[in-house]
Each structure stands twice: as C-alpha cells, then as structure tokens.
Write a structure and sequence with these properties.
By secondary structure, the protein is an all-alpha fold. It has helices at about 1-15, 120-145, 150-170, 175-195. The two termini are about 90 Å apart.
Amino acid sequence: MRRTRIVFVAALALVVMTPSCALFHKRKTAPAPPPAPAPAAPAVRPKPREVFLPAPPEIGAAEPDLSQAGPSLPSEPLPPPPRRRPKPRPHEDADAPSPAPEPEPPAVPVPQFEQILTPEQRQAYTEEIDRNIASAQRAVAALEGRRLSRDQVTYLARVRAFIEQANEARKADLFRARNLAERASVLAEDLLKSVQ
C-alpha cells in the first residue's frame, strides 16, 4: 500500500512538473507578492571602521615623447584640396555653347560560342530540323482554310515565326535551329488537335 502511494505521488509530481502536458498550459500570472515580514526590532549596525589610504603620488605634466610612439608625422602642412569649379547656372551662360558629350567607346562584340559537331551529328541535326519543319508546315497548310479563334490565330503566327527563325538559325547554329524547329512542330500539332 505504501509503495503504491509513493508511485502515485511520484507520477502526480511528474505530471505537474511536465511542461508539455496540455492540461496545465495556462497563461502565466504574476506570482503573488510574498507576505510582508513581521516588524522586527531594528538591528544595530556596527560603526564602519575608518581606513586611511596614502595620498596618490603627484605626476608632473610633461609632454609625451612622440619619437617612439610610431611613424613620424610630416612636418610640412598638407596642400589644400583642389577647388571644384562651380557649374554655371542656365540663365547666366545661356549664350555659351554647351560642351560636346564624350563619345561612347565602341561596343565590343560578345564572342559567340558555337557547339562543335561531328559530321554525323550535323547530319542528324539537319534531318531532324527538316522533319520538324515539314511537320509544322503540313499542320499550317491543314489550318489554312479553317475558321480559327483569336488565340488559335496567335498560335498559328507563332508557328510560322518559329519556322522562319529555324530556317535562319540553320545557317549559323544547328543546335538553336533544331530547338526552334521542334517548337514549331510541337505547337503546330497541338494547334491542329485543338481545331479538330
């Protein structure tokens, strides 16, 4: 019986002390002020002892020795800062010609990085570009006589632009031309499916 009472008290103390218990989450209130102490007889304090310290030594006001303090300071005064010429006000120099603007330096062309392709890769890219452009052109031809919504007309214009850009890019950059031709083909097929 006594052992169960000890276990119960310990469990209860653990529950009360646990901060994560949802039952005991309450707003913290200010603790109650401690009860006022009962008036007691005033304690008699002993008189503090007086301690005499010797007077500090007097130090004369001597100039510091700057020769060992670090780098020496220049003995010559610094020159005055350059004067800035004030800008003329518009009404004062209305007849004076305005200074010519400085010419901008010529733009340096950004080097173009080109992907190096083997002859087999060039052939494969060229065939893929031809296939995608032909597919896109067939879809455009199939859409010519159809009635299209405003969005469909916009998509058709994009397909034509992609075909044109792919043909232009084919001269200099096969990788870009392949991507443009693929976009044209995919967009044209989607547009054709939306019309049917």
